[in-house]
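[09:14] KT: can someone run the structure on this one? pasting the chain below
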Amino acid sequence: MEVIDWIVLTGTLLFIVAYGYWKTKGSKDVTDYVLGGKEAKWYTVGLSVMATQASAITFLSTPGQAFHDGMGFVQFYFGLPLAMVIICIVFVPIYHKLKVYTAYEFLENRFDLKTRSLAAILFLIQRGLAAGITIYAPSIILSAVLGWETKTLNIVIGILVIIYTVSGGTKAVSVTQKQQMFVIMTGMFTAFYLVMSYLPDDITFGKALKIAGANEKLNILDFSLNPKSRYTFWSGITGGLFLALAYFGTDQSQVQRYLSGKSVRESQLGLIFNGLFKVPMQFFILLVGVMVFVFYQYNHSPLNFNPAAVEAIEQSTYADEYKVLEKQHLELEKEKKMAQERYSAVLDVKDYELIVEAKKQIQNINKREIKSREEAKELIQKVDDDLETNDKDYVFIHFILNNIPTGLMGLLLAVIFSAAMSSTASELNALGTITTIDLFRRNQKEEQTDKYFLNATKWFTLAWGIIAILFANFASLLDNLIQLVNIIGSIFYGNVLGIFLIAFFIKFIRGNAVFTSAIITQIAVILIYYFAIHRYDTGDEKLGYLWLNFIGCALVIFLSLIFEILNRTRNAISS
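[09:31] RB: done, structure tokens below
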């Protein structure tokens, strides 16, 4: 980090914080603070929705996901455009018609207070955990850059977000997210341009894609019906659809973004904008990761990208064994570079048989490299069980730190921080709102002024910011960060979505049946996750985690139908 990098990084972050504070301070009432005065245009809604989902984890983990596993992760988002259409048709008009502050107010109107409170509490648990992770993600980056402790960095990042979120509420979140999305996309296009410019002169973009394809990194579609596979076309349009419906339709961090729309039409246009551009954006970020993979076919890459893990093993009794693996890795890199150059040459000759032979050679080397990296992970694990051996989250930052020119490094780090701040601000804003509106205000026995609840919302937002920082200090990586956030969401979202679908479409089911079913379903989903996913290493799970969304949604609907029928039958018999 040179002086110019510090100027770019701190200047960008301080501008966003100061601008958000200055532009939105002095909310008049709860409506102004929670819904931004309902003044947002469609493009503000769309960018705010997109920025809320695009956390630092997206830009930190997704390229590493593509580096290791290829483009298949994009299938996770296949259900999102359809979800946007459904939410625009069903959810948005009802929320606007009822003039609710939160999604869960609707549940009390439809069922009862206890069902509303249960759904709100489930949201607070999963989103509170996720808020801590979105703070923790960029802390990893600065820790690698500066050598500072992640705990210190968690506090710094959390305070930056808290300043303008507590001050300006929803309007501050929406205003700052437009600047943050500009910084984010500028940085990612810059990274893509740089990685392409670093490839050998004879490697065009077309050839780079063919090299990536030869290494099986462009396998975008998987139509297999294997429930163990995490990312398939079918899990994307089913589990991914249910996750997107739950996230955008019932998660207050997103609902609050489009409830701030000036009208139903503005909210709907903003969501359609997100539906049209979200999948291409994720595709592009994954493509950046694939191009980083191609870059490392011609340049040295570490055996493990996690610097803390490497430092630990180099100071352990396993250091000599690790050095042997590193030596083998260097020999393999020479072999790999020659194979890639041969493949590039036969592509020019256009000899099909030679191309097939060269591709097989590359794939064989690729398998040996994967095996070598796995052996390194197993060795690191022997040093300390708590050491994170999975290095997907460190791939992109390693590329940035070792290859990006002075000045641009500050920009790309600003990308990660902007993304972290945008998503964390939305989460804290929603957490404070839900705590005030659905729990605190709803259970007040005495009448209070609007100013009283405005201040309460600010204090609860501050409290959730502190809780998020505390959780970030205890967070640990699980496979990789983007998957951890989605796993947490999948455990809770299906159940909540099922409650809302019952509320919208199955009118004869009443509150008691839904409340009982929701509790049983949540316990069941947690048990399924533990026994079918958590207990197994990555790749050995009995069930892909995306299916938890479908299971939770289907189970709560099924149980609610059963309990309602039983209740009505019992009442009929007794009468």
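[09:33] KT: thanks! The chain has a mean pLDDT of 83.
[09:34] RB: yep, looked fine to me
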